[in-house]
Design brief:
Distance between the termini: 17 Å
Number of domains: 1
Radius of gyration: 16 Å
Structural class: alpha/beta
Order of helices and strands: HEHEHHEHEEEHEEHHEE
Number of helices: 8
CATH topology: Rossmann fold
Length: 203
């Protein structure tokens, strides 16, 4: 894993990059940067560990689907997140060449990361970095996807087999329905910032 190569590649793709050794430092940074804004969250184990919802809610209006109690409320909050001023999420994999990859089941996380906000933050731990785009896509399919399915105890082959790989299943509860590759900063988002954290976090 070449972190400096990754940072340089991301910058060439017009992303702003901030790098931190610990998630506590990254949380402090985001808490200071985002103030008095309307903020939307995408599902992210990394962000949950950083306690960003509680920290940012103290001085921002934060919409987080993870705070919902049922599916109807989840969809309602996810729709609210589509047009907030600021949006935060993570990715399932990143290539040293600067591409990022996300897999989604409902679609709210990838949709909101592409359009509608003044600023988007991708909060990403360095354990998700792979040498190439192909390796990053493989990681998203065969590491992140099964682990997310296991988190929800879904009746899918990857869960039944201990999360060893993706089986490209046809189960109704499948959560690997779309895979998005971010090739470069989206044109109509003012700024997209990748917050890299040199710790093993998330899927």
């Amino acid at each position: 894993m070449d972190i400096q190569k990754t940072i340089t590649s991301l910058e060439k793709r017009l992303y702003k990059v901030s790098y931190f050794e610990t998630y506590q430092e990254a949380a402090d940074y985001l808490d200071a940067q985002i103030d008095n804004k309307v903020v939307g969250f995408g599902d992210s184990q990394t962000m949950l560990k950083m306690d960003l919802f509680n920290r940012l809610s103290a001085h921002n209006e934060v919409h987080d689907p993870n705070q919902s109690t049922d599916n109807d409320e989840f969809i309602k909050i996810a729709r609210e997140c589509m047009l907030t001023e600021v949006y935060l999420t993570s990715v399932n994999a990143m290539a040293e060449t600067g591409e990022m990859v996300n897999i989604d089941g409902t679609g709210n996380r990838v949709a909101a990361s592409l359009f509608g906000h003044n600023k988007v933050y991708f909060v990403v731990s360095t354990n998700k970095i792979e040498p190439t785009l192909e390796a990053a896509q493989w990681r998203a399919r065969n590491v992140a996807g099964p682990k997310n399915a296991m988190k929800y105890s879904l009746p899918s082959p990857c869960v039944a087999n201990g999360g060893d790989k993706c089986y490209d299943c046809k189960t109704p509860e499948r959560i690997c329905n779309a895979m998005v590759t971010y090739l470069r900063k989206m044109n109509d988002v003012d700024e997209v910032e990748v917050v890299l954290i040199n710790e093993e976090m998330g899927y």
